[in-house]
Amino acid sequence: MTDVDTGKAATGDAVLDRMLQGGIPRNRTVLVRGGPGTGKTTFGMQFLQEGLENGERCLFVSTEQTQSELRDSFAEFEFDLDHEELAVTTLHAVPDDGDGSGRRLKLRTLEGNSTIDERDVPLTEQNVARHFQAAAGCDRLVFDSISALQVLGDNRELFRRELLELIQLFTKDLGATALFTAEDIDDRVLDFTTHGVIELRRERVNGDPHRFLEITKMRGVDHDTRTVEAEIESGGVRCAPSRRSQPPELKTHKHTSIGIDGLDSLCGGGLATGTGVLFEHDGHANMTALFGAMMHAALDKGYSIVLVPTIRMRPDSVRTILEGHDQSLDSLLDDDRLFVIDMIGAWDETEDNVFGARESATGVRSILDAIAERAGDTPRFSLINADAMVNTLGTDDARAVRYAQEAHWLRSDDLLVHVHNPNVTGDRITGFYTNAAEQVLRTWITDNGLQYVSLKKSPCGFVGTTSLVEYTTEHPFLRVQDPPEERENPYAE
Q: I want to staple 463 with a disulfide (CB 3.0 to 4.6 A). Which of 244, 310, 381, 478 is the partner?
């Protein structure tokens, strides 16, 4: 099946096509916007070359460069400018200087031959249609650059109307899939009139220049919204990275579902087991519903829970959370399914499997030894308030306990999740916990009250993706927005 069959026009780059779920929608106009030197013209010609390789007819319209200038620009690329199915033409727009219409253009081919006559003609759909009559039936068209038409006047509504006429001509009358390139300007009239927008920009990373690409709009497509690098190569624009997590061949871990579909998908199937997981929060996001869902999923899978509670997870709160998931706090403590290491002084140490705070790494290690013995061969889900560890033990002993947890008590099926608010500790301890974790998630609440979760680091999943978190009245009482679909499976199976 070709991309014509699927209703998508491939761009010539595998990563971008995957982000677009196959390519640019057929018979639509997409804006490619960016400043000078970002690769707009190169991307446009690459789009046409991909069409030529698929047996399609293509048209390149330049409003800014002559034939010799275009050939010089593309001299270092592998583009076939002499392909029999590629037509190249120019359209030069100039302000009106006599009849007061405010709309004039000059139409010439790159060879310098007029396709209408030897004088300027008004910019009308009919005149443009006559100029492109030879291109009727073309499959792909690039208009580079639509910004040149803005010399026709300051009338924003007039410019918008002319754009709509061009879009109608190219996509409906000529039946083409069209790319319009444009400079990165403040006026967003182009954004509203086109079907999609691809943004190219240049930024410095550690002082070095880099190009970036982002799909900011694509109607009817659940596209990937993440930013990628756009490297200019001999074949055109190459987007990278092709993956943001390691391939299955390099997998050194397993993962387990935590019962929250969107979050499981974001993480590539669930939380990583047999390694450290870090969950960062901003102190505003309510974590109890998340922790409740995670504990419920772990208990359902036969895990025992090792809990170093946050200040919000006092006994009554944990009891309520567990009852909401049809679990009993007292029964879990009695049955060696729940172990509490109380660093906040809110739990009753006289109860079975409730351990009071210890002020040294040695004391905490003795507790972990006792828990391991009581839990036996049952897999363990450890939910650790890292901030309480740091505040009680100090940074050095907290580090020692973190290392010991993974080195001495963590088995391949165990889950080890540390919860951390970077705002209450120094940068060095935050960096330590981040570095020690194989998987890092972050959740926060924006000023308008929306909560999000982002996968910052992971051996699998949609690294760099941010998803909305919302609370529900049905189990598991919250949902996480599914990440955009990709053609390449991000799961490390």
A: 244
Q: Which of 313, 300, 226 is nearest to 256 (CA)?
A: 300
Q: How confident is the model over 269-291, as pLDDT tens digits?
A: 899 999 999 999 999 998 888 99
- Asked if residues 163 and 193 have their Cβ atoms less than 8 Å apart, the reply is yes
For residue 278, give the amino acid letter: L
Superfamily of domain 8-240 in CATH is P-loop containing nucleotide triphosphate hydrolases (3.40.50.300)
What SS3 class is residue 36?
coil
Give Cα 192 to chain centroid, integer Å: 22
* The pLDDT of residue 34: 93
Instruction: Tell me the β-bridge partners of 452.
Output: 444, 468
The span from the CA of 42 to the CA of 466, in Å, is 30
Token pair of 276 as six digits? 């450290």
CATH 3.40.50.300: which residues of the chain? 8-240, 248-480
Condensed to tens digits (0 to 9), the pLDDT of residues 160-201 reads: 777 777 787 788 777 899 999 998 766 677 788 889 999 999
Q: Across the chain, how many H-helices and E-strands are there? A: 14, 24
Q: Higher model confidence: residue 24 or residue 134?
A: 24
Q: Which residue has the tokens 């036996």?
A: 376
Instruction: Determine the 3-state secondary structure of 37 from DSSP.
Output: coil
CA-nearest of 41, 48, 2 to 22 is 2
Q: Look up tokens 């319009």; give the residue.
A: 180
Q: How many residues does the chain have?
A: 493
The DSSP-derived string for 160-193 is HHHHHHHHIIIIIIS--EEEEEE---S--HHHHH
Per the CB < 8 A criterion, the answer to whether 364 and 393 are in contact is yes
Q: What share of the chain is helix, strand, coil (3-state, %, to 5)?
A: 30, 25, 40
Residue environment code for 349-361, b if the CB has 16+ CB neighbours within 10 A, otherwise e: eeeebbbebbeeb
Tens digit of each residue's pLDDT (9 = 90 or more) over 439-480 = 999 999 999 999 999 999 998 888 888 999 998 888 888 999
Apex CA 240: angle with CA 234 and CA 242, to 5°?
A: 115
Q: What is the mean pLDDT of the segment spanning 116-128? A: 48
- Tell me if the bond preceding 68 is cis, omega within 30° of 0: no
- Our CA angle for 425, 428, 429, nearest 5°, is 50
The gap from C-alpha 179 to its chain's centroid, in whole angstroms, comes to 23
Distance between CA atoms of residues 403 and 386, nearest Å = 13
Degrees, nearest 5: CA angle 366-441-224: 160
Burial class (CB in 10 A: 0-12, 13-18, 19+), 341: buried
Q: Does domain 248-480 have CATH number 3.40.50.300?
A: yes
Distances (CA, A) of 154 to 103, 143, 157, 187: 11, 21, 9, 11
